[in-house]
Amino acid sequence: MKQLPNLFTLLNLFFGCIAIIFILQNGISVMYSPDGAQLVDMPEKIWMASLFMALAALVDFLDGFVARLFKATSDKGKQLDSLADVVSFGVAPGLILYQFLRMSFMKQEDGLEVSMLWLIPALIVPCAAAYRLAKFNIDSSQQYIFKGMPSPAAGLLIASLPLIYWHTDSEPILKLLLNKWFLYALILFISYLMVSNLFLMSLKFKDFSIKNNLPKIILLIIAIVAAVFLKWLAVPVVFIFYILLSLAFKNKTT
Fold this sequence. Notes:
- By secondary structure, the protein is mainly alpha-helical.
- The protein is built from ten helices and four strands.
- A hairpin with a 5-residue loop joins strand 1 and strand 2.
- Helix 3 packs parallel to helix 5 and helix 8 (about 215-230) packs antiparallel against helix 9 (about 235-250).
- It is globular.
- Mean pLDDT is about 85; it is low at about 35-40.
């Protein structure tokens, strides 16, 4: 039973790797010619990656729960968890942003000739996630508060972008998601939040009193209402309110 939490952690890594596979299916048409020319279309599958990143987040939550349940917490498990998180909530989100930047430049006349230098800023995100996780591992005070945005939260925000893009008919939203300057700003904003020392609330409950958990209750209500009316757009909305509530209830957060 002591290895059970580690199996959940490895499942997190496994789902993160599958997400990356879907991200790399980038819509390029391939020419085969065993019996003649044949055009094979490979449609974008990035939105499928979002689902596997959500599964990775679920098992990432469960591994800690299982470890506490069976009293199987260990330093090895903590390090393994961070290594898995770097892939699922660092590398995978970074590649999603890379692909969105690629699609953004493809809409330009010279899009096929764009230098990779314009795309690699997306890799700032996995670097920031790795730094954030290393800082978390050596800080024992981040049980009921976080110093900086947790990498799973940042990763899931980015994971919502393909779901929003492929499931919306709103032209302004589609244009925004393929605006390279918006994407660059998003990369810098999320990376800054992860490496900063901004106090953000943990979603763990110290007790069950309304007074001590008011910001979490408000966030839950906002999440439910937003999910009903905004669907996938609810994710960035909840993300913004998570930051605002953490700042507004800073005394309760810390």
